[in-house]
Amino acid sequence: MPGRTVRKKRNRSRIVGAVALAAGASLALAACGSTKDTGAASAGGGDGSGKVGVILPLLTSPFWQSYNDYVPKMAKSEGVDALKTVNSNSDPSQQITDINNQLNQGVKGLVVAPLDSAAIEAGLDQAERKGVPVVAVDVAPDKGKVAMVVRANNVAYGEKACQYLGKRIPSGKVVQIMGDLASVNGRDRSEAFRACVKKNFPKLRVLEIPAKWESDTAASKLDTLLNANPDIKGIYLQAGGVYLAPTLQTLKSKGMLKKAGQPGHIAIVSNDGIPQEYDAIRRGEIDATVSQPADAYAKYGMYYIKAAMEGKTFKPGPTDHDSTIVKLPSGILEDQLPAPLVTKDNVDDPKLWGNTVK
Question: How large is the average pLDDT for residues 343-358?
Answer without folding.
Answer: 93
